[in-house]
Amino acid sequence: MRIGIDCRVLSEKGHAGIAQYTKHLVEHLLKHDTENDYVLFLSELLYTEDDCPQNVEQKLCKSSIPFWSSHVVFSRLVNSSNLNVFHSPSGMLPFFLKIKSIITIHDLFLIEHPEWFNGKTWFVRKIFIPYSIKKADTIISVSEATKNSLTRLFPRVESKIKVVHEGVVIKQLEYAKDEFSLKYNHLKEKEIILFVGTIEPRKNLLVLLDAFEVLRNKRSEVQLVIAGKVGVKSETTVKRIQNTEGVFYAGYISEEEKRYLFDIARVFAWPSLAEGFGLPPLEAMCAGVSVVASDCVTTREILGNDCLYSDPKDPVAFSSALGSALTIPEQQKGVPERCVLLSWDNTAKKTQKIYFLYDQKRRA
């Protein structure tokens, strides 16, 4: 069986949600499957000639003229690759695709909350996303919450939706403490509250900053560390971060630095207004960090009963929850069972079963 996967997102700087999903999914698919062939469509080579797995073929698709490259040229490349099925982890399909296809839908906030984005999204919101959802033969939804959004906005596609949760990396990354200790040396002996994620409206950081100031009036030793790249419509939030005492902005961080921050943090704060899945708080839980999360449908689905919940629109209530989390003794923290259930191994195996629906030999 030949399976094509669109991996062009991996060339983008600062791997965020979809790039992380694509990276880990491909890594774990190849870890478990040596029988089938994988064709990876890339903007830059992922493997050298020496380290490329035997069942992997890399095809480059450079983007020089936006629409022409992304739709006409890319469709020709995919259509001519003799695939059983093509998977787009980003949820977008080229317009002239002629083979069976699978897309992953992470969320539909571009349609549900266009006010969270800049004004250059009309084409994607009105044309590209609806086309891809209707065109795809199977839709992978990363959560039941996202599936509910899909069926509400596109009721005719319900029969082709399959829920496959994202995964979390359970093994501990090795890193050199000295590499990061200098950067965070001023935080020694502080009670650190950590946020990791893109700075954008739906992450609701203004409420977190309000809650932090309320808490800091009671506990002067508390420190807030915010890590992540700056997204759209974030100017007000960035200024507030810069002007709030006790807040340190770490910028975009590597996986190793994130692991270091999990090791020194007392609490992970997740005030997000909405998520398709919400990986960072799950990662924090798996690292043994107490989590305070916004009380919304997706966080309840993904995090279960292993964290504290609070109203994301009430800074005082969120501050109180942060204070409660800081009182949890270190020895009572542990890795919840759901971190094992929501592993990338399970995600890859469930995704592979969907691929096999398009294998004529298995269906015969």
Task: Give a nutshell description of this structure.
The protein has about 375 residues and is of the alpha/beta class.
Any overview of this molecule?
The protein is 39% helix and 17% strand. The radius of gyration is 21 Å and the shape is globular. The two termini are 13 Å apart. It folds into 2 domains: 2-167 and 343-363, Rossmann fold, CATH 3.40.50; 177-341, Glycogen Phosphorylase B (Rossmann fold), CATH 3.40.50.2000. It is built from 15 helices and 13 strands. The strands form 2 sheets. It has a 7-stranded parallel β-sheet with strand order 3-2-1-4-5-6-7, sandwiched between helices. A 6-stranded parallel β-sheet has the order 10-9-8-11-12-13, with helices on both faces. Helix 1 crosses helix 14 and helix 7 crosses helix 12 (315-326). It is of the alpha/beta class and 364 residues long.
Shape: globular
Q: What is the string of SSEs from the N terminus onward?
A: EHEEHEEHHEHEHEHEHEHEHEHEHHHH
Total number of helical segments?
15
- Summed up, the domain count is 2
Helical amount:
25-40%
Instruction: State the CATH superfamily name of the largest domain.
Output: Glycogen Phosphorylase B
